[in-house]
């Protein structure tokens, strides 16, 4: 049931946010949905994912916290 809710929420976020086609949606283990501007960059040395959020802020998150990353169409 929890996975179904996450998929439905992810679908809703992906459909409701209007942006260019190269944006991504990342789902975290905590259940958060992160919408990025452009493709997130994975640093294999540090294990961090760098991305720009919808407000234009540069952010990083540990790769272990990401469950799924989907490219928006």
UniProtKB/TrEMBL annotation:
<keyword id="KW-0732">Signal</keyword>
<keyword id="KW-0449">Lipoprotein</keyword>
<feature type="domain" description="Lipoprotein YgdI/YgdR-like SH3-like">
    <location>
        <begin position="23"/>
        <end position="70"/>
    </location>
</feature>
<dbReference type="InterPro" id="IPR010305">
    <property type="entry name" value="YgdI/YgdR-like"/>
</dbReference>
<keyword id="KW-0564">Palmitate</keyword>
<dbReference type="InterPro" id="IPR047807">
    <property type="entry name" value="YgdI/YgdR-like_SH3-like"/>
</dbReference>
<feature type="signal peptide">
    <location>
        <begin position="1"/>
        <end position="19"/>
    </location>
</feature>
<keyword id="KW-1003">Cell membrane</keyword>
<keyword id="KW-0472">Membrane</keyword>
<dbReference type="Pfam" id="PF06004">
    <property type="entry name" value="DUF903"/>
</dbReference>
<dbReference type="InterPro" id="IPR010920">
    <property type="entry name" value="LSM_dom_sf"/>
</dbReference>
<protein>
    <submittedName>
        <fullName>Putative lipoprotein</fullName>
    </submittedName>
</protein>
